[in-house]
Amino acid sequence: MSEPDWSPLTGFRVAVTSARRADELSTLLRRRGATVTSAAAIEMVPLPDDDELRLHTQTLIDSPPDIVIATTGIGFRGWIAAADGWGISTELTESLAKARIVSRGPKATGALRAAGLPEEWSPESESSRELLHYLIDGGISGARIAVQLHGATAEWDPFPEFLDELRAAGAEVVPILVYRWHPAPRHGAFDQLVAGIAEEGFDAVSFTSAPAVASVLMRAAELGIEAAVLSALRNDVHAMCVGPVTARPLVRLGVPTSAPERMRLGALARHITDELPLLRARTLRVAGRLLEIRGNCVLVDGEVKVMSPAGMATIRALAHRPGTVVSRADLLRALPGAGTDTHAVETAVLRLRTALGDKKMVATVVKRGYRLPVDEAFAS
Asked: pTM for the whole thing?
């Protein structure tokens, strides 16, 4: 038997919002057949230029904390590297060494140990909630806690409840905002990506950081399409996140999300590969042929059939009510930019039959419209 001419993600459109390692994730997805659109959602403030981070670092050197919480490996390493560039890394690590040190996960633990700062405890689950319970159960009233955070702006706090609950337990919290960010520039590729989400031009959007999620939502509001973006993400554009922290801003808004068990880039690519076909592919048996409808193509008995936008709109409208007659008026409303000319429907159906390679897969019902002649077992 010959090898199929498709891959697991053939026909699916995925948006990549990562600022770091976007090329790596895009390559992994393209190798699996996806059509990828990539535009960084955020731009980082260069660490050497971050006067706010330097001020807070000096404050901790002058007045050492009682507890240190490391939340991300790259964030903690970046903090130490910035301090080294300012010539105060030794003073910083000496100050932090006097504190109880806890870590949110293995990457943060590795960064701590590389700096000569062994952790007291780290949750196996990598859960901020479990870390919070550990500290509160041990008593933190009156303690001064330095929390290393990754990615923030004046408008958006990555861990609002986490910090609030520490304060509610009686602690003084000193947030260390490493890698502060700005949204991507206006009128560029990122604006087009956000507009594409609103127009449901993607089957999935990948997020590798909560700041990227926040940036998409902020830009959607600026463009006046926030409602459309949220509607798309709640329905046919699936939010695929690297982990629960990244997903949290979407979960708060009632947007369904999914994530791999391990918070790693490769695991996210595998998760998208495994889950997206289950979420977005529609499989029917039509006129004795196996039809699989994907984002921008269909498979007929395992063979890829490339579709025009009009062809995809027509096949989706017919598959929405498989076996049932769909009127020309309903099909006309589904066609992109068709206007009021019903001849556009006849043209679209003719081209769809040609693309499918079997005219029997779209049946004409005289004076009524068209239907997919779905085999009885698939008609319910």
From this structure: 0.71
Q: pLDDT for 157-201, tens place per residue?
A: 556 688 899 999 999 999 898 877 788 999 999 999 999 999 999
Q: How many of the other CB atoms lie within 10 Å of CB of 120?
A: 13
Q: How is domain 282-378 classified at the CATH fold level?
A: Arc Repressor Mutant, subunit A (1.10.10)
CA 347/CA 341 separation, integer angstroms: 11
Domain 13-44+184-280 has CATH 3.40.50.1980: no
> What is the C-alpha separation between 104 and 370, in angstroms, rounded?
57
> Which residue type sits at 350?
L
Q: Which residues does 250 contact at the CB level (< 8 Å), separation at least 6?
A: 207, 213, 233, 239, 241, 257
pLDDT by residue (tens digit) across 36-93? 999 999 887 777 888 888 999 999 999 999 999 999 888 899 899 999 999 999 999 9
Evaluate if residue 111 carries a pLDDT over 90. Answer: yes
pLDDT of 367 over the 50 cut: yes
pLDDT recorded at residue 377: 54
pLDDT at res. 6: 72
* % of residues, the chain, pLDDT over 70: 94
Q: Check if CATH label 3.30.230.10 holds for domain 47-179.
A: no
Sketch the domain layout of the chain as residue ranges. 13-44+184-280, 47-179, 282-378
